From TrEMBL:
It comes from the Bacteria. It comes from Marispirochaeta aestuarii. GO terms for biological process: isoprenoid biosynthetic process. Keywords: Nucleotidyltransferase, Transferase. One of its GO terms (molecular function) is 2-C-methyl-D-erythritol 4-phosphate cytidylyltransferase activity. This is 2-C-methyl-D-erythritol 4-phosphate cytidylyltransferase. CDD domains: CDP-ME_synthetase.
């Protein structure tokens, strides 16, 4: 199996605030971005590493990865105006390598483990698509636009879906091209895959594999 990891780090960190992109903030011995990449460093499993970045932002991204193993080549790709557009740009950048499977992961999700990444890749190869899922602890509701509860989701069947989300490469590329053509806005890559290709399998996720969205998410 030849797998690729596509890390999304082209966003503006608008909700996070501050003067530095959240992916470039120090974390442990490296940065948020280098930690997010660290789950995909094993060359026996992940042959290609792609990181989407802001346009003209390669120098900053390289500096954020200064502690990442130099033995692993990282392909930087300028992202689009949305995460969806950035993922499509990253997928197209992999066309010359044609991996069997690609795992799409948030650059602001630094606490994934190699075990989760490897299991997602393995299951995606079997099922076509796979993502980590964690049970919802809070009561899940659907609200109207003016803030009233209009539906109540079953706790037994509602889950939070994390990244990395893994897919057969050619299928998710096809799905993303069609999604770009239809002009729709999709919540994540599992929705795009489900819209155009088929059902996505899940594996148990990890509560520690959380995404940094706000300043308080960096707290231990």
């Amino acid at each position: 199996m030849r797998a690729a990891a596509l890390i999304t780090a082209a966003g503006s960190s608008q909700r996070f605030g501050g003067s530095m992109k959240k992916e470039y903030l120090p974390l442990g011995a490296g940065t948020v971005l280098s930690s997010a990449l660290s789950s995909f460093v094993d060359p026996e499993i992940f042959s290609y590493l792609v990181v989407t970045i802001p346009e003209n932002g390669k120098e900053e991204a390289e500096y954020a990865l200064r502690d990442f193993p130099r033995s692993r080549e990282v392909i930087f790709v300028s992202g689009g105006e949305t995460r969806q557009a950035s993922v499509l740009a990253g997928l197209k950048a992999l066309s010359g390598y044609d991996p069997d499977v690609v795992l799409i992961h948030d650059g602001a999700r630094p606490w994934c483990t190699p075990e989760i990444a490897e299991e997602v890749a393995r299951r995606a190869m079997e099922a076509g698509g796979c993502a980590p899922a964690v049970p919802s602890v809070d009561a899940m509701k659907i609200l109207s636009r003016d803030g009233f509860i209009i539906d109540h989701l079953s706790r037994e069947t509602s889950f939070r879906i994390q990244t990395p989300q893994g897919f057969v490469y050619r299928d998710i590329l096809e799905a993303h091209i069609k999604a770009a053509e239809d002009g729709g806005f999709y919540i994540d890559d599992t929705e795009i895959y489900g819209r155009y290709i088929g059902a996505v399998a899940t594996i148990p996720g990890d509560e520690r594999n959380r995404k940094i969205t706000y300043q308080e998410d960096l707290a231990p």
